[in-house]
């Protein structure tokens, strides 16, 4: 699968987002090692702590279907800036991948690529406690 195909899946997922408070619609597409892709969108809640990011929705869907080996994730939102994963999402992704690729897109179609280790250096991991 090409970067653009994965990014398009993330963009399509953003159209399902429920974001009545922020109006910031986010989509994610998580690619597994076997080529399976799981998508997710952000789901907001009036109790802000109950809001779930698109990245975690995609990851939790994948894990609930037995997948735990991820190679990359694409994240998309309308806006001028690249849509980067929040700190919580970075830590949750790190639980399952030491160094997946993270594609961060913006509305213009441009995107940047990072390794998860660049976005979350010195991550808290199972071996740290």
Characterization of the model:
This protein has 4 helices and 5 strands; from the N terminus they run H-E-E-H-E-H-E-E-H. With 129 residues, it is of the alpha+beta class. The protein has one domain (3-128): Cytidine Deaminase, domain 2, CATH 3.40.140.10. Strand 4 (101-105) and strand 5 form a beta hairpin. The protein is globular and about 40 Å long.
Q: Strand arrangement, largest sheet?
A: 2-1-3-4-5
Nearest-angstrom radius of gyration?
14 Å
CATH topology-level name: Cytidine Deaminase, domain 2
Shape by Cα distribution? globular
User: How many DSSP E strands?
Assistant: 5
Notable traits:
single chain, 129 residues, Cytidine Deaminase, domain 2, 27% helix, 5 strands, 23% strand, 5-stranded mixed beta sheet, alpha+beta
Write the layout of secondary structure elements.
Elements: H1 3-14, E1 26-32, E2 37-41, H2 54-64, E3 70-77, H3 87-94, E4 101-105, E5 111-115, H4 116-119
Task: Give a short synopsis of this structure.
The protein is of the alpha+beta class. It has helices spanning 3-14, 54-64, 87-94, 116-119, and strands spanning 26-32, 37-41, 70-77, 101-105, 111-115. It has a five-stranded mixed sheet with strand order 2-1-3-4-5.
């Amino acid at each position: 699968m090409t970067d653009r195909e994965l990014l398009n899946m993330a963009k399509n997922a953003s159209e399902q987002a429920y974001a009545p408070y922020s109006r910031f619609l986010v989509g994610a597409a998580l690619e597994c090692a076997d080529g399976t892709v799981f998508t997710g969108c952000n789901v907001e809640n009036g109790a802000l702590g109950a809001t779930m990011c698109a990245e975690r929705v995609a990851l939790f869907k994948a894990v609930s279907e037995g997948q735990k080996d991820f190679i990359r994730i694409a994240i998309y939102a309308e806006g001028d800036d690249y849509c980067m994963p929040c700190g919580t999402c970075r830590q949750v992704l790190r639980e399952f991948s030491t160094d997946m690729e993270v594609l961060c897109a913006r509305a213009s179609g441009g995107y940047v690529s990072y390794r998860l280790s660049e976005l979350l250096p010195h991550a808290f991991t199972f071996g740290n406690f």
